Amino acid sequence: AQTVTQSQPEMSVQEAETVTLSCTYDTSESNYYLFWYKQPPSRQMILVIRQEAYKQQNATENRFSVNFQKAAKSFSLKISDSQLGDTAMYFCAFSTSGTYKYIFGTGTRLKVLA
Amino acid sequence: SQTIHQWPATLVQPVGSPLSLECTVEGTSNPNLYWYRQAAGRGLQLLFYSVGIGQISSEVPQNLSASRPQDRQFILSSKKLLLSDSGFYLCAWSVSPVGLAYEQFFGPGTRLTVL
């Protein structure tokens, strides 16, 4: 069975510092896609970043970057220069082409401290 | 651009009453549509998904049902609500060209409280 594990239920970081959120997954597929979503207190789910498994280069979106280790089945999210607006629940998700289904982790609640 | 709408935004219903939540997508054709439930402070539970009109796949065989009467409309229903149906309901859409899997886009959600 395909699974996504986020082992850090809660984290905190000082404003302007860097924080890394962990995510591991399990699959026997070779062609798949990984995502990080952010859910702020408004509860609107927002896509933060995506990574195609066939790409070796780690995805980057402004202050957000990933460390994709395919052999280790690890997909961590690094947030640089943390801002108060980054306070949210972060979900790691996984999908394989043609399955239509997305597997979500249980989430990491991140609090950015002033 | 694509937009996804959900209504109502909040709903308080008594146990045993019926339920109808609606989701519509604009700006795309033949999307994959999804219903998720999120309990307070918890992750997402996939309830139903649909890859086309009239095609519904159920992940949770409880007292909920889903229908897709039109290409971009997805409805979540119940004949009799239970206390355990309380939660935050999210609708989402995606497209998946052959060999690819694109990200999901989520609606603003419906907060359902069953009393």
SSE run of chain B: EEEEEEEEEEE
Number of strands of chain A: 12
Largest sheet of chain B: 7 strands, mixed
Structural class of chain A: mainly beta
Strand content of chain A: over 45%
What string gives the helices and strands of chain A in order? EEEEEEEEEEEE
Radius of gyration of chain A: 14 Å
Helix content of chain A: under 10%
Shape verdict of chain A: globular
Radius of gyration of chain B: 14 Å
Stretches with pLDDT under 50, minimum 5 residues of chain B:
none
Distance between the first and last residues' Cα of chain A: 41 Å
Straight-line distance between termini of chain B: 38 Å
Low-pLDDT parts of chain A are none
Give the overall shape of chain B, derived from the CA principal axes.
globular
Mean pLDDT over the residues of chain B: 90
Mean pLDDT of chain A: 93
Q: How helix-rich are the residues of chain B, as a percent range?
A: under 10%
Description:
The complex is a heterodimer of chains A (114) and B (115). Chain A contains no helices and twelve strands. Chain A has 114 residues and is an all-beta fold. In chain A, the strands form three sheets. In chain A, strands 2, 5, 6, 10, 11 and 12 form a six-stranded mixed β-sheet that branches. Chain B is mainly beta and 115 residues long. In chain B, the strands form two sheets. In chain B, strands 2, 4, 5, 6, 9, 10 and 11 form a seven-stranded mixed β-sheet that branches. A four-stranded antiparallel β-sheet of chain B has the order 1-3-8-7, with no helix packed on it. In chain B, β7 and β8 form a beta hairpin. The radius of gyration of chain B is 14 Å and the shape is globular. The interface between A and B is medium-sized, with 26 and 27 residues.
Give the SSE layout.
The complex is a heterodimer of chains A (114) and B (115).
Chain A: E1 3-5, E2 10-14, E3 19-21, E4 24-26, E5 32-39, E6 46-52, E7 60-61, E8 64-69, E9 74-79, E10 88-96, E11 102-104, E12 108-113
Parallel strand pairs in A: 2-12
Antiparallel strand pairs in A: 1-4, 3-9, 5-6, 5-10, 7-8, 8-9, 10-11, 10-12
Chain B: E1 3-7, E2 10-13, E3 19-26, E4 32-38, E5 44-52, E6 55-58, E7 64-70, E8 73-78, E9 87-94, E10 105-106, E11 110-114
Parallel strand pairs in B: 2-11
Antiparallel strand pairs in B: 1-3, 3-8, 4-5, 4-9, 5-6, 7-8, 9-10, 9-11
